[in-house]
Structures are given as C-alpha cells and as structure tokens.
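Researcher: Please predict.
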Amino acid sequence: MAAQKTTYGIIGYPLKSSLSPLMHNTAFKELGVDAVYKIFSLKEDQFPDFFSDLREKTNPIFGLNVTVPYKEKVISYLDTLSPFAEKVMAVNTIVINKERRLIGYNTDGPGFLSHLTELKFDTKGKRVVMLGAGGTARAILAVLCLLPNRPEGIKIYNRTPENLDRLIEDLSTRIDLSIVETVNSVDDLNIELADFLINTTSLGMKEGDQCLINEELFHSNLLVYDVIYNPPETKFLKMARKRGAKTVNGLGMLFYQGVLAFQHWSNIQLDERVKAKMRESLTKGLKP
C-alpha cells in the first residue's frame, strides 16, 4: 500500500469553512513540498481517539492548527508547551515530531502583534478596551501585558462575567495583569476615551448578530480591530467606520499566525515571495 501523503490540518467545531487550507496549501505548492492541509471538524468526544491515533508511527499528520472552541481543551492531550503557550494556556498550533510527541504553541499573540506592527500602531501608553474571554482573548491580553512598553490600561468585558473572572484569575498566576480592569457592562469600558478597541468574540460572523457597542460610542481617534475576517466587514466594523474610526479585520492576524505556525512545523523561515503568495490566497479566498 502506498504511503499516505504528509498531512497538516485544522481542528475545530463547527468547521464549515476556513481559509487556512488555502494559505498552507499555497505554501506547499510554492515550496514544491508534497503535503496537504485538511479540515478536521471534530466533536470533543472524538478527541481521545483522534489524539491517540496521532501518536501512531504510521499517522501522516505532522502539524495542526486549533481553532474555537478547543484552544484550551487540547492542552491535556499534549506532551509539552512552548514558554509562551504555557503562560497563555491556550494553543492554536501543534507540532507532531518524528517521535510522535505533541508540542503546543500559541502563534495568535505574536501574529496579532506582527499585524499591529504592519499597521504602524504602537500600543505603548494607549487605552485599550477588549470584548471577549475565549482562547483568542487570552493570547491577545497576555501578549499586550508581556510587552516591555505596555498599554496605559486595558478594560475588558465579556457577556458571561464568570468566564472572564476565571480567565483573569488564571492568567494572573503567570503574568502581571496590573494594567487590566474587568467591567460588568459595556458602558464601563469608557470607549469614548479609548484609543484601541478589540473584538475577540464571534459576534458578527452571522448576518443577524447584534453589536455589543452602541454606534454613538465609536469615534475618529479609535482603532477598531475585529479578529473576525469572514465576513471582511462585520456590522461592528461597518458602524465604527461610519463614525470615522479606523477599522481592521483579523485577516492580517490570520496570515501572520499562519506563517509562524508553518515555520514551527517545517523549521524553515519562509521567504517574502512565499509569504506574499500565502497572503494573496487569503485575500482571494474571502467572500466580497
């Protein structure tokens, strides 16, 4: 029987669509690598068998991305974590080495910072507000608090306060969160005084989703960042743009975290030509 093709992929649920296969399969093609990137839509009760199979010598999978809702849940199935993933306790990239050991990384935080660098936005001394308390929020909050030149303050709101409380309580055992303040209502975020607003919730992916922020609160001195990239302009971003705010979706973060994930899997630095092709594939893959 012919050997199976070297495989990479993304796990999450539900996973009807993801742009990650476009980006990574483009990179394989450009590099002349005989490998494929697939979607693995897994329910949590499939994890024990899936991760047990990953350890088999004959398994062709050597790298995975992890998306919602599993960035924290996969950790118990891994052998070791990178230093940053250990601080965040959320994993979005798994390397399966030749010994079939599973190593967890978090490229969301560094990917987010790389996108901010591209946007020429410096968070030093800025007043930041955040929405959400999931795996992506963990990574962004952690990386902002670990910067040498930190924001002046970060206010964060989540619709389920106990989830946010758990997140802060956990992160604060490993990271200095002294600049972070949790609030119980959107009004307490003081968006009218903020420089940078980040949405890490999934609200806005569906047509009928409500917007957590009153349109009147957006203003022209605000950078509004939505980690959602499909649709390219959520209701949240549309409202912010109408009020004169600068708006950005999460496609850049997806790209940069993907480049870092690929480099972890392959142990090579991607050149600018390949990276440009990867980004082009993402842009073309987005629905208008």
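Model: The first strand starts at residue 6 and ends at 12.
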